[in-house]
Structure formats: structure tokens, C-alpha cells
Design brief:
Blueprint (H helix, E strand, L loop, with lengths): L2 H12 L6 H9 L20 E4 L2 E3 L2 H11 L6 E5 L5 H10 L4 E6 L2 H13 L8 E5 L12 E6 L8 H6 E11 L2 E9 L2 E9 L11
Parallel strand pairs: 3-4, 3-6, 4-5, 6-7
Antiparallel strand pairs: 1-2, 7-8, 8-9
Helix pairs in contact: 2-4
Length: about 210
Amino acid sequence: MSISNEKLIEGLIKDGFLKSPKVIQAFRNVDRYNFVIPYLKNEAYQNTSLAIGFGQTISQPLTVAFMLELLDVCEGQKVLDVGSGSGWTTALLAEMVKNKGKVYGIEIIPELYEFGKINVAKLGYIQKDIVEMICDNGYYGLKKFAPFDRILCSAEVKEIPESFKEQLKVGGKMVLPIKNSLCLVEKKDKDNIEITEEYPGFIFVPLVETK
């Protein structure tokens, strides 16, 4: 782990965005530098979103930390990562589910899918069968591998997609931006999906609904 990555983590802890040991350790093991496009690598440790091409971004570290703390991923769970982009969130989730879990990263833009897959593979998660990267339309979830214990969506939606509701396991959680609010959604039972926490003031790129 680089000194700069540790400084980023220390700042996120100090500001209250990183709290739990499992999320902190994931940030320590997955260096953001490895998921930033080459000409922006000198900005990898800044607490800001960065372009990764095709109108998409790698999210601000504090936002990712906040989302992962809300999502509360546990070892051994099956997680869907919608809008995996450069693969950073997918790799962080892989660290949290560990060897007995599985993360499915889905990205609609072929070039970003390839970029993310290469980045995740360099850390060994694909080879260990902890991660599977898929190029497809995340708006429709990933029915083939449902249900999921957790769903993370890193792009804004106007309302919760029906596919997410259907593919989340009863007792499961999802975190996603709805309009300008970051929301924790819980599936209490088969027909009861509730936004249990809502935090306004976040800006995300919109989720692409068609390929």
C-alpha cells in the first residue's frame, strides 16, 4: 500500500466516512491508483471524482466509502455491482466478500468493461473466482445469478428499477442514487421494499437504460 493511499484513508477516517474495519481494510488492500486512467494517475488520491472516458467517472472516495458503509457487505455474500466502470468498487466488494463470496460486476460500455476487467484481474479476483465481470445492461440487473444479498449501483436512477427489487434477496440491502439522494433500500419481505435511509446532495452520472 502506498503512502498516498494511506493518507487518503486517514483523511476519510478523520472525516467520518470510513468507519468499519472491513471497509477500511478493503480500501487499504485496493489502491485507487490502479483504477484511474493513465493521464490522471497523479490525481488518484484526491478526494474527487475523475473521468474514466465515455462520459463516465470513478466516484469520489468519500462517496464510495459512504456507500460501502451503508451497504454493510458481509463475508460470503453474493453482490451485484451495477456500473462497475474501472472496477474499483468491484475490487473493494471482492475484498469484503472474501473467498467464499462472489461479486458480479456489470458494465454496459464495452471499452470500460475491458478496462475494468483488466484492472480487477491484475489483483487476482477473477482467477480466484471471487469476481465475474459482465458486459451488459445493468439496468435490468443480472437475473441469471439472482437473488443477491447486496446490490450496489453507482449511477443515478429516477426510481428503483423493478429488476433490482425482484433480484434482491429477502433481507437484502441495496445502495443507489435516486435522483439527487443516496439511498439505502431494504427488502423486508417479498412485496415490501423500503427506502430506510436517504441522504440528499449527491451527484452521479445517470444509469444507462439502453445499450
